[in-house]
Amino acid sequence: MAKLALVDDHVLLRNGLSVLVKNLGHEVLLEASNGQEFIEKLKPGLLPQIVLMDINMPEMDGYDCTKWLKKKYPDVKVLALSMYDNEVSIIRMLQSGAKGYILKDSDPAELEVAIDALVNKGFYYSELVSGKMINAINKMEETEAVLGIKLNDREICFLKHTCTELSYRDIADKMLVSPRTVDGYRDALFQKLRVKSRVGLVVYAIRNGIVDLQ
Questions:
Q1: What's the pLDDT at 126?
Q2: Cα separation of 58 and 34, whole Å?
Q3: Residues 6 or more apart from 53 whose CB is under 8 A from it?
Q4: pLDDT band at residue 133, thresholds of 50, 70 and 90?
Q5: Helix, strand, coil shares of the chain as percentages rounded to 5?
Q6: Does CATH number 1.10.3720.10 belong to domain 3-129?
Q7: What is the DSSP letter of 213?
Q8: Per-domain residue ranges for the chain?
Q9: What is the pTM of this model?
């Protein structure tokens, strides 16, 4: 049995989620409608193992609350529960410290699997993310070990910008180069790191401390 907290500003959804979590045999320690309320309700001596965290909330959203948790209580694992399935949302939650990411319209069985994975493995990502990210993570160690990868300053600068919400065109403006040059950086890194997506680039940056996740 795991001890959970639920943070979501939709009361009906949160109530239904609470019932589901309890039916799965887990305990709900607290519920909150936003990150700030969660922080105020959190008791240092009675911490949840897992927080089911919505992303878009008033006062303090899921990104900022997850960052706060990572800094204050790094052993508490955040499972992002969101309607958003775009790369930027996934990247931002990973940067913030989330250990799992599933969609709100997922089957209850997937939530059960996700909770068990967080308890036993320390991480979980849905099929949505796994195709883009877990494969990249699994391949990264092999790639790094075999290739002895070395990046130049411009590639590192590009990677840092890639770990933001900037579009590739915006990154070109930031780096004072043409969009075609940025496309060249991207394609060269895809080949060098053996990844196929922006998320793969972000995974590499996270694993190698190129971006600050605090």
A1: 67
A2: 6
A3: 7, 8, 62, 65, 66, 78, 79, 80, 81, 98
A4: low
A5: 55, 15, 30
A6: no
A7: -
A8: 3-129, 136-207
A9: 0.67
